[in-house]
Amino acid sequence: MKGFYIGIYEITQAQWSAVTSGNPSQYSASDHPVEKVSWKEITEVFLPKLNQLLSDERDAKGMPAGRCRLPSEEEWEFACRAGTQTDFCFGDDEGALKEYAWYQDNSGNSTHPVGLLRPNHYGLYDIYGNVWEWTASTEGSNRICRG
Fold first, then answer.
1. What is the DSSP string of 37-51?
2. If we measure between CA atoms, which residue out of 110, 23, 120 comes closest to residue 80?
3. Dihedral angle at the C-alpha atoms of 9, 15, 17, 18, nearest 10 degrees?
4. What DSSP line would sit under 116-139, residue for residue?
5. In a 10 Å sphere around its CB, with 0-12 CB exposed, 13-18 middle and 19+ buried, how is residue 127 labelled?
6. What is the pLDDT of residue 109?
């Protein structure tokens, strides 16, 4: 697998709105993850607009910065596991899940601001729960359960 970058938080409603000028989310709050978006909306609307906005920016090597995409399933699994071989990135103790994830037992059936719970060993937040994760696989087989 080649190297890749991945955001440490889910895309927030404020970020989605800044790129698309809209917010489809049911649980409206700027620091919550965007939800109620389809794979098609992400790949055909959000990412092209985001890449266009970034096209004038340059990275440290002088390359265009606007090359954002969804991670592959393999990349997401690698990032989520953070080098572990256990059931969860934090070990095998399901009781510790509440420290890392918003799920049925602690979410109150709503989303929550990104980054409130503990990150994995790679510094990625909300890898379990809060919202579903999309990957770059073909539409229909690309939803990764996050809680």
1. --HHHIIIIIHHHHH
2. 120
3. -170
4. -S---TTS----EESS-EE-SSPT
5. buried
6. 92
Both tokens of residue 29?
């709050």
pLDDT confidence bin for 69, thresholds 50/70/90: very high
Angle at 40 between CA 39 and CA 41, to 5 degrees: 95
- DSSP class of residue 33? B
| Percentage with pLDDT > 70 across the chain | 87
- Dig out the tokens for 68 from the structure: 């954002």
Burial of 1 (0-12, 13-18, 19+ CB in 10 A): exposed
Nearest C-alpha neighbor of 122 from the set 93, 83, 88: 83
DSSP codes joined into one string, 41-94: HIIIIIHHHHHHHHTT-B-TTS-BS----PPPHHHHHHHHHTT--SSBTTBS-G
- From residue 125, give the alpha-carbon distance in Å to each of 45, 100, 139: 25, 8, 25
pLDDT of residue 3: 86
Please state the pTM of the whole predicted model. 0.84
Structure token pair of residue 115: 């980054």
